[in-house]
Amino acid sequence: MTSPRLAGAIAVLVAALAAPAVARADEADAVFTQGAAALREGRPSEAIADLEALADRGVVDPVVSFDRGLAYAMRVRLGGEQPGDLGRAAHGFEEARALTRDDALDRDATRALAAVRAEVARRRARDGDAADLEQTASLGESIVHLVPEDGWAGVAIAASLLTGIGLFVRSRTARRRVRVAATVSVSVAAPLLIAGGTLVLIARSERAHRVDGVVVTSTARPSDSRGIALPNAVPIPEGARVRILGTGPSGAWTEVGWGGLDAWIVSTAVRPLARVP
Amino acid sequence: MSRLVPSLARVVAFVAFFVFLASAAHGAARPELRVWTDSDTVAAGEPFELHLQAMSTADMPAEPQPGAPASVRVSGPSIAQSHSFNFGNGVAVNKHGFTATWRVTAPRPGDVRLAPSVSVGGVRYATNGVIVHVVPPGQAPPRRQGGGAPNPIDPFHFDPMDPWKGLLGALGADDDALGGVEPAIPTDPKLALDAPRGRAAFLHATVDRTQAVVGEQVTYSVYLYVDVGEREPEFNDVHEATFGDFVKRPLLEDDNGRSVGNARVGGRFWVVKLVRRFALFPLKTGTLTIGPMRLAVAGPGGAASQRRESESIDVRVDEPPIDGRPPGYAVGDVGDFELKADVTPREAERGAAIAVNVELTGTGNLPDRIVPPTRQGVEWLVPEVREKLGNAGNDRFGGSRTFSFVVRVTRPGETDLGALTIPYWDPYARAYKTATAPLGTIHVSATGAPEVDAGDTAPLGGLPEARTSREAAAAGRSHLADLWFFWLALAAPPFAFIAASGGGALQRRVAAAVRARAHSPDALVRRRVDEAIAAAGGDDGRAIDAATIRAVEAAALHRAAVNVRGVPRKEAVALLETAGVDAKTAGEIGAILDDCEAARFAPAGVEAADARGRWDRARRCIDALPRRARKDAPRSPGAEPDKGDEA
């Protein structure tokens, strides 16, 4: 007799617990639909309000990021530009690229990002500033990103197998040619195993801990930890992608890396890219 | 003559100017005088008090005169010195002075005019005086206790510029008049504190809330408490409080402060003056600290200054809730806002300027910019902003901010300008609200400036199309390095080889150790002893004796390093003794060996019981032999008794 009642109570409880989440999802969908409609109808400010509201609620979606970037870019295009719109557009496109698994969306975001950065570069060149928004990565960073993390994992696994087999063969055979071949295999595979394993670890650590951001003000002046502008340091341009290394105790300053430059900038000048939860 | 007139006019103007300057300087040095009596109607022959308060920013007032007619009797004065201060731009402006009190007695009924005066910087200044009605004895109304100015609202003579002066007079110079009775000073319980924060004077800071959201008004006040029993404190070296993480807006018209009442703290009376009040708007989340306000308090007569500072206050600041947050809400927009917009004209030529005046009113942290709705063909120019902000009543900061936009529409036809909206958080209703001002539509004629195709010149051409459907929830991608068996597989091949190689070597070493242990001298002796024990369990006397001999020989060889096999008895005993075996044991070993040999080869055979007896003796000897270290064991293969026995 109690089983149906208990099951009913559990069902009601589950429904009650799940209801807020469902409501939030529905609300997010409604806001997105509203924002997308505003974007289609050429009302970018309204679209920005809706799409930013989704970001405030923690919605991580490459399409939302992409449309948000488009809304900012459209506002610039329609002449209603507000300070930082280009940087926020670049942020939306960068975030969409980082989150999406859709190749078409990735291509569109890349194309739009290039257009935004070209506009920033054009303005900087017009003002006589350096037009470079991309900074070359360090050698170590380049090596780590030479192949994907799983690629390094495959290399390490293959090297491990080769090392093990070589060692066994070398210890078990008395034939000279085979021993030489096994020795050569081990000599090549063992360093490869160590290097591959290390790169996998670095790539994994970077994936887990690295936070990137985009400069969303017209310029960000590099400073030291006390907030004093670094002499001869090139200001980081709007729309530049930077590595976020940390935040000061007051939260007002953020340490960023841009190419070979490690410096502090005002926290409001950089907006972190959302990551897949 | 025509030239003379302008010259004369110039001279007159100069003279007038200098007269003005002189009078202005004179006015600046003029003391503030105030006169009152403790009653305006007294009985003839009844003494009453005449008070004169004189305050000056320049020289100290001196030589007070009662200005009484000769017909009245005057005694005194008693002097109570006073001091007041004002803050302005971090500078304390001091005023010095005193309150003089005379005791006056009018002998006859009638009106008596009293016009006291005082000297400042060698110049005497007189008051307009007061008139006291003297009535026959018994007809005067009852007088108020304690004396003082006849102000029903302010019985303690509070002066906004010198709030505690009256109290100083009441408790200091007027002690005689009070007759030693403590005055009933009205105090405000809201101003009471647990204990004074300093002697003579101190600062006390408060906020109306210690928890707020970003942009919500936090009202910060600093009060100055001055002990009415102290004389002439001087204030200088004022340092304002610090509000690094707040936007600060003043709520007082100036920094002079104002009296807010009296307090009883630590058993003493304090005059309390509000010296600062600000509306603070937090700029970020977290625990934000308001630094203390500081000043120096110097005692009278140039006594050493003492630092006084208000409390440092922490305010916990959060964001307004995410739930229900309207699109377009900017963190920090907190208050109660209202938007009004006026668009003129509604009809215009293409490219003509249209004025859009937007008035944002309300209280709280009014946004300093409004993002206009962007439309194709509508260009909004940067607005001119005017504001009228301040204390909007009840210490709430607010007012109005007006944005005057100029809009140009480049597309002919009906154009909907959209609406201006400002979502905000109402902290009192604890809810989000939205101030909206619809702008309506305007009609733009095709005349005027030619239409410009913005598509050719506008930046960011060729943007991709917007997406209308969301991507499936992006789940975290799995990576090989996140799997534990990846690391196991990575380590397995080399570690398997190492384990296999190491295992083989270990096995060989263990086997060798076992073998070595099996052939050790102790093991041999134990084996021989075990054989003898086994033989002793049987009935074969010869076998017992033979086993006894082998055990003894093995023990002698491996424990005393003496090979007694085939060696004559005496020589064997000597060798054993030489090897360190005590003489008794050595002799017994020799005897046992002889006895066993003799019994083995006796024609009558060997009794098993006798043989067991010899074995028992032999066993005691074996136990008596010292155990030797393994390295002392004989190395010569020829010394191995096993082989001899087996042979």
Structure, explained:
- The complex is a heterodimer of chains A (277) and B (647).
- Chain A is α+β, with helices and mostly antiparallel strands and 277 residues long.
- Chain A is built from eight helices and seven strands, in the order ααααααααβββββββ.
- Chain A has helices spanning 2-40, 44-56, 62-77, 85-99, 103-126, 139-144, 149-172, 176-209; strands at 211-215, 219-220, 236-237, 241-247, 253-258, 261-266, 270-272.
- In chain A, helix 2 (44-56) packs antiparallel against helix 3, helix 3 (62-77) runs parallel beside helix 5 (103-126) and helix 7 (149-172) packs antiparallel against helix 8 (176-209).
- Chain A is extended.
- In chain B, the strands form nine sheets. In chain B, strands 11, 13, 15, 16 and 17 form a five-stranded antiparallel sheet that branches.
- In chain B, helix 6 runs antiparallel to helix 7 (541-560), helix 6 (521-536) runs antiparallel to helix 10 (608-624) and helix 7 (541-560) runs parallel beside helix 10.
- The longest helix of chain B is centred in the last third of the chain and has 35 residues, at 484-518.
- Chain B is elongated.
- Chains A and B meet through helix 1, helix 2, helix 3, helix 5 and helix 7 of A and helix 5 of B.
User: What is the end-to-end distance of chain B?
Assistant: 171 Å
Q: Tell me, what's the shape of chain A?
A: extended
Structural class of chain B: alpha+beta
> Largest beta sheet of chain A: what is the strand line-up?
6-5-4-1-7
Low-confidence runs of chain B: 18-28, 145-182, 630-647
| Most residues in contact, chain pair and counts | A-B, 77 and 54 residues
Could you tell me the strand content of chain A as a percent range? Answer: 5-15%
Tally of DSSP β-strands of chain B: 31
So how many helices of chain B?
A: 11
Fraction in helix of chain A? 55-70%
Shape of chain B: elongated
Multimeric organization: heterodimer
Class inferred from helices and paired strands of chain A: alpha+beta
Give the amount of beta strand of chain B, in percent.
25-35%
| Sheet with the most strands, sense and barrel status of chain B | 5 strands, antiparallel
Strand runs of chain A, count: 7
| Beginning-to-end CA distance, first to last residue of chain A | 43 Å
